[in-house]
Design brief:
Blueprint (H helix, E strand, L loop, with lengths): L2 H22 L3 E5 L3 E7 L2 E8 L1 H11 L3 E9 L2 H12 L2 E9 L5 E7 L5 E6 L19 E5 L9 H13 L3 E5 L10 H14 L2 E5 H6 L6 H9 L5 E6 L2 E6 L4 E4 L12 H15 L4 H6 L3 H18 L9 H9 L2
Parallel strand pairs: 1-4, 1-8, 2-6, 4-5, 8-9, 9-10, 10-11
Antiparallel strand pairs: 2-3, 6-7, 11-12, 12-13
Helix pairs in contact: 2-8, 2-11, 8-10
Length: 335
Amino acid sequence: MKKGVLKVSLLLVVLFMSLSSMAESPRKVVCIGETVLDILFRNEKPISANPGGSALNSAVSLGRSGVNVYFVGETGKDHTGDIIRSFLRENGVNGTCVRQYEGMNTMTSLAFLDEKNNAHYSFYMTRPRQREDFILPVINPDDIVIFGSFYSVNPDIRNQMRRFLDYAHDRGAIIYYDVNIRPPHSSMIGIIRPYVIENMKIADVVRGSRGDMRTVFQCSDADSAYVKYVEPSCRYFISTGGTNPVIVNTGTVREEYPVKKIKTVSTIGAGDNFNAGFAFGLIQLGITRLQLIKGLSPKQWSELIKYTQMFSQNSCMSLENYVSKAFGNKMKLHH
């Protein structure tokens, strides 16, 4: 056999093996967002400290539930950052896409729990002198991307975020956007609202909370927010509001799903674990992006919301920001 033919044959074999490996690899979830150490206070006294950040909380719950999950984010090269990276490894999250910065202090959040166990926050951080591009995993068709909060509209990293979203979209991932803009950023709404709209346009599913209705959309109800802001950009809108029913708008169907009332310990991770449950449900039910685009059946939506509530409610039963390890192990058995 001639050398040229041999080289081509070897290249074809490598390509075939690469494609085969890609086809056999499990679907992954990529969560991108800030890394935070959450210090919880009740009655003005610290009671717990947990690695946090919206996307990180989702990632940890998925990792505990046996999902192939990557977290994309950044920490300082400090002790707090070491704690967070170690915690990700211990909970089944691939943290190879966490960039470390010299001279940056990893963000710390003081979360003050009120009488209803809802949190009010104060954030403390230093920015890196110069941000580099995100470290990204290879994204394959039907992988799932979870992103949102101020991190996704932060002007300092908006260009990197947009490149990442374009990449994920071009690769055929299901993109799930949790708006999640907290009141401290309400003074910047004029600057960041165009980025929120850009995010909704590239997303396959958008979730907004009751707080987002007021802060971002300046609406008093989910239906008004959907018609005025979401529907022109994204077909699917899920709105949540504590113990109020979950509302799903699809453009053709509007459905409400009652929320089971439970005794909460902390609601910090409720929304983040709602997002994790949605991603888990997509994988568990085998829902592809093509199926999502064509439209899901009422039964599929009902099953998806069931998973969101299971994850969300479990996370509210402890001071952690994620589902319990026992819950995660139980979900693994059915996964």
